[in-house]
Design a protein that fits this description.
The chain has about 260 residues and is an alpha+beta fold. The chain has helices at about 35-45, 50-55, 95-120, 135-150, 150-160, 165-175, 210, 230-235, 255-264; strands at about 20, 25-30, 60, 65-70, 75, 80-85, 85-90, 220-225, 240-245, 250. The chain has one domain (about 5-264). It has a 6-stranded mixed sheet with strand order 8-7-4-3-9-10, covered by helices on one side. It has a two-stranded antiparallel ribbon with strand order 1-2. A two-stranded antiparallel ribbon has the order 5-6. Helix 1 (about 35-45) packs across helix 3 (about 95-120) and helix 1 crosses helix 4. The longest helix has 23 residues, at about 95-120.
Length: about 260
């Protein structure tokens, strides 16, 4: 979660971590980085996690050829850490659009898990950053940047970034308790009246490129492992595995495989 001080440019780099934008509300540009979703995109495009043991597994999703993705979000310091890193199963042979929709589904599921953990005990005792007003939307911006190779400066323009002074004014008038006091469990922006750059209704409309992002639901093309990770014993034994729509992992016996082959 960002604070009021993040509205000001860094004395060393001039970078503004947090800014108010006419179309996207407050954006945390630290969350809007494309690195995480770019890693997820690479795994889906290559149909491989990059983990040798996981990539060596024979996996099916409801009987269809699939592969394992390793992805999640994490943060913290010392012994207090939050992480949603997990294993995900994705069908092989998806089209580019299907892979993008599956990636967004995985990405947003991991994002909701992350925000939920931050909002739960014991983390809510030390921070109110869980589902902070800017979090999920900033994540979506990072996803769009990764999939469409959009530079940060261009994204700031698309969202309609206002000046530092205007951002501070909006904060002081509408956020007396900070962004963490405003909870947003959606990817819709929380907008506030701005005196800068608004000449028509379109100046405050949510960008179409973000509105048009589509996600596929879990169960058909992808699913998260119910217990978060595939049991290490199954990975070590390198057993063929089938994963159900609900994320249950089941070893596939030799007899079952031969029977399935015979029915084809």
């Amino acid at each position: 979660m960002s604070g009021r001080e993040d509205l000001y440019p860094s004395a060393k780099t001039g970078w503004r971590r947090l800014s108010y934008t006419r179309r996207c509300g407050f954006v945390d540009w630290g969350h809007a980085l494309p690195d995480g979703p770019a890693s997820l995109k690479r795994q889906l495009d290559q149909q491989a996690s990059g983990n040798r043991k996981l990539d060596g597994l024979s996996v099916t999703l409801e009987g269809a050829p699939a592969f394992v993705v390793e992805y999640g979000q994490s943060m913290g310091s010392g012994s207090l850490r939050v992480s949603t890193v997990a294993h995900w199963i994705v069908r092989k042979g998806l089209t580019a659009d299907q892979r993008k929709a599956a990636a967004l589904g995985i990405y947003m599921t991991a994002s909701h898990r992350f925000e939920g953990l931050q909002a739960a005990f014991p983390f809510f005792l030390v921070t109110d950053s869980g589902y902070s007003a800017e979090d999920l939307l900033s994540n979506v911006i990072g996803f769009h940047r990764a999939y469409n190779n959009v530079p940060e400066a261009q994204m700031r323009t698309i969202c309609g970034e206002v000046s530092v002074d205007e951002g501070v004014r909006i904060w002081d008038e509408h956020l007396p308790n900070g962004l963490g006091a405003l909870k947003n469990r959606t990817t819709n922006p929380m907008l506030f009246p701005t005196k800068e750059g608004v000449t028509s209704p379109s100046d405050t409309e949510f960008p179409l490129v973000l509105k048009n992002l589509r996600t596929s639901p879990a169960g058909n093309q992808w699913v998260g492992i119910r217990d978060r990770f595939i049991d290490n014993m199954l990975i070590t034994r390198n057993l063929p595995l089938n994963v159900s729509r609900s994320g249950i992992v089941t070893p596939v016996s030799q007899t079952t495989r031969l029977s399935a082959i015979g029915r084809r």
